[in-house]
Design goal:
Blueprint (H helix, E strand, L loop, with lengths): L1 E6 L5 E7 L2 E8 L5 H15 L9 E5 L5 H18 L3 E4 L1 H7 L7 E9 L2 E10 L2 E11 L1 H11 L5 E4 L3 H12 L3 E3 L9 H13 L18 H16 L4
Parallel strand pairs: 1-4, 4-5, 6-9, 9-10
Antiparallel strand pairs: 1-2, 2-3, 6-7, 7-8
């Protein structure tokens, strides 16, 4: 079963081809060019280099979020267009879980954190159990102190490995509150990767968790800044018009 994995939730854009459990190829590009300019040419090039016709692709795994709102929209638009052309089943893969999937030494608690700005992170916690990556703290948008508190409540003395672009702004806070339990993954493991999306997507498809292009939706985990600003403006206008 050949799976096309697409990851566009961060500053890097990547695509991967997986033949069941065999990684056939992966492209990762992290430059200033927009995802809109890079994504489709990367997919076409990867198919060509792997000597695969698009007709041979049997599933598309897309990183569903959280992350960059613009990046997620670009990824979903491309993936849904491709799936519609050939009626290919899709699966939305949780971005945080896929990021945790990068770290596979099998020991400790793996905590992916993405900088959500506004003094928040997108974060969760996972551990490997019998070869499966299991969630022990539900991924969501929260303050870093809330995440640390949840981890402390739900874990014991295991080491805790942090990875993702939220590590850099919060590393000092993490070390202050977790001390020697805290570890930080290498920069190589801190970037979202399409190969992890494809591998988790394959597992989900084997479990029958597919969707069609009409129904699949991203998981932003919170409203965009534009949506929040619009709501605040509407509330402000409503309050100005109110007379007790």
């Amino acid at each position: 079963m050949i799976i096309l994995g697409i990851e566009t939730t961060s500053s890097a854009v990547s695509v991967a081809l997986l033949d069941s459990e065999k990684l056939m190829g992966e492209y990762i590009v992290n430059t200033k060019l927009s995802h809109l300019e890079k994504l489709m040419p990367m997919i076409h090039s990867l198919l060509e280099k792997c000597e695969i016709q698009f007709d041979e692709v049997q599933g598309i795994a897309i990183s569903e979020g959280p992350g960059s709102f613009t990046g997620i929209r670009i990824g979903f638009s491309a993936a849904k267009a491709l799936a519609q052309v050939k009626n290919i089943p899709m699966v939305g893969v949780p971005t945080l879980k896929a990021l945790a999937y990068n770290y596979r030494d099998g020991e400790g608690i793996i905590v992916p954190i993405l900088d959500a700005r506004r003094n928040q992170v997108y974060g969760g916690a996972y551990r490997w159990e019998d070869g499966k990556l299991m969630e022990c703290v539900t991924g969501k948008a929260m303050a870093i102190d809330e995440l640390i508190e949840e981890i402390q409540l739900k874990t014991t003395h295991e080491k805790i490995i942090f990875l993702g672009d939220g590590v850099k702004p919060y590393s000092e806070y993490i070390l202050k509150h977790l001390g020697s339990r805290a570890r930080f993954a290498s920069p190589f493991n801190c970037t979202q990767r399409a190969s992890s999306i494809a591998q988790l997507g394959y597992e989900m498809m084997q479990e029958g968790k597919t969707q069609d292009y009409k129904n699949i939706k991203p998981n932003y985990m919170r409203k965009s800044e534009a949506e929040r600003n619009s709501e605040n403006k509407q509330k402000s206008q409503k309050n100005k018009g109110y007379r007790p």
